[in-house]
Each structure stands twice: as C-alpha cells, then as structure tokens.
Write a structure and sequence with these properties.
- This protein has 2 domains: 8-124, Rossmann fold; 132-220, de novo design (two linked rop proteins).
- The protein is an alpha/beta fold.
- Helix 4 (90-96) links the parallel strand 4 and strand 5.
- Helices cover 58% and strands 12% of the residues.
- The protein has a 5-stranded parallel β-sheet, with helices on both faces.
C-alpha cells in the first residue's frame, strides 16, 4: 500500500461509467485506485498492482464476477472482495459470501455505506499498518477505530460505534487529501464520541485505550 493512501482498490466492471464514478470517488477520498473492464484483465493485473481490496461486478460478459471471485480466491486468498450488483441480483450476491466475498453493494450506490464497507474490508483483510518509515497516524486511526467498532455489541455499535467510524474515516481521508483543518475538526468529533462511548460503557478497557492512543498519535501528526 502506498504510504499516503488509505488502501489499494481494484475496481472491476464492464461499464466504463461505473468504473469512472467509483474511481473518481475513491481517488478523491485518499485511496489508490486502478480499474479493469473484465474479470480476465483483473486477474492479469494482480501480480503487478497487488490490491488490498477488489470491488467486483457480478454480471460481466465472458468471465463473470462469480467465476472471477473463485479464481481470485485461488491466487490471492487474502484480498478482500466486495461484490457489486444490480438490485435484481441481490440474492445472487448473497450466495457469493459463501465462496469468499466479504460483502456486496447494490447499484445505485450508497457511497457512505460503500466506503464503510471498503474500510472494514481493508481492516479485515489485514492491510498492514504503517511502518516507522512511512508513518501515517491518520490511517492507523481509521484502522484502529474500525477494528474495535466491528467488535462492539450491536446496541453499542448502533449507539456510538457507527458515528465513530464515520468521524475516524472522515479524519483519515481529509488528512490523506492534505486538508489538515478539516481533519483536525473530524478528529475533535472522534474525541467527543470516544468520551461518550466511555461514559456509556460502549467501549472500555483495551479497545477504548487503543483508539485513544491512535487519536493522540494523529493529533501529534
């Protein structure tokens, strides 16, 4: 993963308009992005690009998304895959979870949900944390937040967890875009939400301390 990006995303869709919209969105929000117009092209790009996550359309001519997913699982088992589907294919998309997809999203896109799913995928796939030589405390903050929030009880996650994810992700992407003032404002929201989560016992112990430590590092950065 590049030192300045939130993660490497490979977008696979036979529709150029879909590729362009997704690529523009994620590039603007601090991710490193490449696109492929077919399953075969996506598989061929894996050795050179080495994505952390793949957004994969289900219905494509030739090698469709399901077969591409099966082959991708054989050659790159650690890469997170989120399927992209039309509303009429949601049942088919659910079936892909059984063969290794992490999640699925339907068109037209809910970009807030899509980006949360992408960040969760990057974290669950074990995208490596910044080494001392390419220290990125903002990315580390987003990863730490998503790791602990995904482990929260359902009620706690609904109460404060989702808002924590939103704020930490916003802070990381603002910092990745060089918008330090906006990043600092989002970081302030993270701190406020952490205080509330601690008071409500939504987050406690090592989980709370991990995110608090990441906030301190981001503030220093």
């Amino acid at each position: 993963m590049s030192a300045s990006g939130l993660g490497r995303i490979l977008i696979v869709d036979d529709e150029e308009s879909v590729r362009d919209v997704l690529a523009e969105y994620f590039t603007e929000h601090g991710y490193d992005v490449v696109t492929a117009e077919s399953g075969a092209q996506a598989l061929a790009s894996l050795p050179d690009y080495r994505p952390d996550l793949v957004l994969l359309d289900i219905r494509m001519p030739g090698l469709d998304g399901i077969e591409t997913l099966r082959r991708l699982r054989q050659v790159a088992p650690a890469v997170a895959v989120i399927m992209v589907t039309a509303n009429e294919d949601v049942a088919l998309a659910r079936d892909t979870l059984k063969i290794g997809a992490l999640d699925y999203v339907a068109k037209p896109f809910d970009f807030a949900y899509l980006e949360q799913s992408v960040m969760a995928g990057l974290v669950s796939a074990g995208v490596r944390q910044p080494a001392p030589s390419d220290d990125d405390p903002w990315r580390a903050l987003a990863h730490a937040t998503f790791r602990v929030v995904r482990g929260m009880a359902e009620a706690a996650r609904a109460s404060t967890g989702v808002r924590l994810e939103d704020a930490a992700l916003r802070a990381a992407r603002e910092a990745a875009g060089g918008r330090r003032k906006a990043a600092a404002e989002a970081l302030g929201e993270v701190e406020l939400l952490l205080a509330v989560a601690g008071e409500l016992r939504d987050l406690t112990g090592a989980d709370l301390a991990a995110v608090q430590s990441a906030v301190v590092d981001a503030r220093r950065g």
